[in-house]
Structures are given as structure tokens and as C-alpha cells.
């Protein structure tokens, strides 16, 4: 994990495996917990520190969390997924932020910002924070409910026409769609699900944009606050959609229209969370 403060970007390691920012306690109201994507196989560095720094420049505190992952070949061999461990990672982060006064963010509102599979992880915490698999036998300090979510081209649904097979296989440890249904996030939305800003590109061929649509629809049907932004074109994994996150400096995914998601998300958080 790495922590970025809105007014001070200097970092240093500590024993919790974090890189906290040095300096005075933050006066910010929110902390953004960035969950990179990667199909639960790896963590995309394009959706990592640069995203957190972008939020910090906009006046938010931001945290990058590196949760458990496992390559799908290993999952198929072991028949053990990483979903539970990944959810516990996020739960521990929420608990630590609310409990540890030394981090200076115990009164912040916690917003999970997940990309692709990280979006599924964020939505899973938003809808399953009271699930017995997460709460039984654990001594959490308080509620694990996030205060809000930013879901960026998220994996959401286990429906056969929408499911991202690798993500659900790695999450559950099973290749049987029947074993995925409990983690189909749109089915777990309730009236108490935290507000969500959701965005996707219509031309995403990796994770269909209807994943975002069904989650937004479920939120609205339950009276929850949600904003859905669909961009007319763009590849999966756009991240900030700026030049600073490009892999090969060819700027293929840099798109000024898609890049507006960040300011829109910030406005939603400040208004609705």
C-alpha cells in the first residue's frame, strides 16, 4: 500500500507495508483507495500510483492497495481462488484507516476506486461488506462498509453474456459459472449500497459496458445514488486516459474526452458521498 496526501507527496516506508506521506495531519474529508485491475492475475501499474497522485492533485488523500492475485493457470491447478483473500485485504485497509490515528484519516470518508477486476473487488465490498464469509471470526474495529465507490470499466456481472471469465475464475477458484453467481455484484445491491460513480467505454471488447449498466440500474432500482458515464469509444484499460499512463509513449489510449472521468468522479464524490 502507498498513501498520498493532497498537500504533500513525500513518501517513506513503514512496518505496515505502506508508504505514508510525511507531514501534518490531513484536513481532507475523503481518502480514495485505488484498486488496480489485472483480472485478479496481476496488478496493472497504469492504474496504480499515477492514479493516486492524480486524485491527490485534486485535493483528495489517496491510498494504493496491492491486494492478493494469482495467475489463472495456478488457480486451475490448485482449485483455490483469491477472492476471499483479496476482500480481506480491502477490509483490513478499511479497518486500518478507521482505526489507526497515526494515519490521520480515521474520520475520512472512504471511497474505493477500482479498475476492471479492481472494480469488481470494490463493488464486492460495497455489496458484501456484511457477508458472513468476511465478518465471521474476524475482530474488525467497526463497519466494513465503504462510504462510496468509483468503478472504472468494472467487471460486475456473472451473467454468461457479460462475465469476464478470467476474473471470475481467479476470484472463485472455479470455472463453473454456477459458482460465480454469489459474486455477481448487481444481484447483491441493496438500499444500503454506497453511492457509486461508474464509467465505461461502449467499445470495450474485454469487459462489456453492460457490466456498468446493470450495476447502475440495480443501484437506481434500490434508490441508491449512482452516476453512469458511457464514452462512445475507447479501449479497455484506459486508466487516466492521459499521456502519463501510456505504456509505449505512443499515446494510443490518451483521450481528452475519456480523461474527463476524473473531474466528474471528483464532483460526484464531493456531492453525493
TrEMBL record:
Q: Which residues form the Peptidase S9 prolyl oligopeptidase catalytic domain?
A: 179-245
- Protein keywords: Hydrolase
Leader peptide range in chain numbering: none
Q: Which InterPro entries match?
A: AB_hydrolase_fold (IPR029058), BD-FAE-like_dom (IPR049492), GDXG_lipolytic_enzyme (IPR050300), Peptidase_S9_cat (IPR001375)
Q: Where is the BD-FAE-like domain?
A: 27-135
Q: Name one Pfam family in it.
A: Peptidase_S9
Q: What is this protein called?
A: Alpha/beta hydrolase
- Mention one GO biological process in which this protein takes part, according to its record: proteolysis
What are the GO MF terms of this UniProt record? serine-type peptidase activity
The superkingdom of the source organism is: Bacteria
Amino acid at each position: 500500500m502507498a498513501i498520498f496526501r493532497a498537500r504533500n507527496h513525500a513518501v517513506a516506508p513503514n512496518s505496515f507495508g505502506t508508504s505514508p506521506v510525511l507531514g501534518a495531519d490531513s484536513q481532507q474529508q475523503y481518502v480514495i483507495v485505488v484498486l488496480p485491475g489485472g483480472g485478479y492475475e496481476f496488478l496493472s501499474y497504469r492504474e496504480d500510483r499515477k492514479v493516486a497522485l492524480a486524485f491527490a492533485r485534486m485535493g483528495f488523500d489517496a491510498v494504493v492497495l496491492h491486494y492478493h492475485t494469482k495467475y489463472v493457470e495456478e488457480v486451475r491447478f490448485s482449485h483455490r481462488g483469491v477472492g476471499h483473500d483479496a476482500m480481506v485485504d480491502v477490509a483490513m485497509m478499511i479497518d486500518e484507516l478507521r482505526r489507526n490515528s497515526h494515519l490521520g484519516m480515521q474520520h475520512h470518508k472512504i471511497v474505493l476506486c477500482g479498475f476492471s477486476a479492481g472494480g469488481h473487488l470494490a463493488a464486492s465490498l460495497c455489496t458484501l461488506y456484511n457477508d458472513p464469509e468476511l465478518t465471521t471470526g474476524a475482530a474488525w474495529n467497526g463497519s466494513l462498509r465503504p462510504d462510496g465507490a468509483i468503478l472504472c470499466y468494472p467487471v460486475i456481472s456473472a451473467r454468461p453474456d457479460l462475465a469476464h471469465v478470467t476474473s471470475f475464475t481467479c476470484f472463485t477458484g472455479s470455472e463453473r459459472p454456477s459458482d460465480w453467481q454469489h459474486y455477481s455484484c448487481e444481484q447483491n445491491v441493496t438500499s444500503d449500497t454506497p453511492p457509486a460513480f461508474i464509467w465505461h467505454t461502449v467499445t470495450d471488447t474485454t469487459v462489456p459496458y453492460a457490466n456498468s449498466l446493470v450495476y447502475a440500474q440495480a443501484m437506481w432500482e434500490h434508490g441508491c445514488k449512482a452516476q453512469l458515464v458511457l464514452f462512445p469509444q475507447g479501449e479497455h484499460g484506459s486508466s487516466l486516459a492521459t499521456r502519463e499512463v501510456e505504456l509505449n509513449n505512443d499515446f494510443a489510449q490518451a483521450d481528452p474526452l475519456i480523461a474527463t472521468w476524473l473531474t466528474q468522479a471528483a464532483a460526484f464524490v464531493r456531492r453525493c458521498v
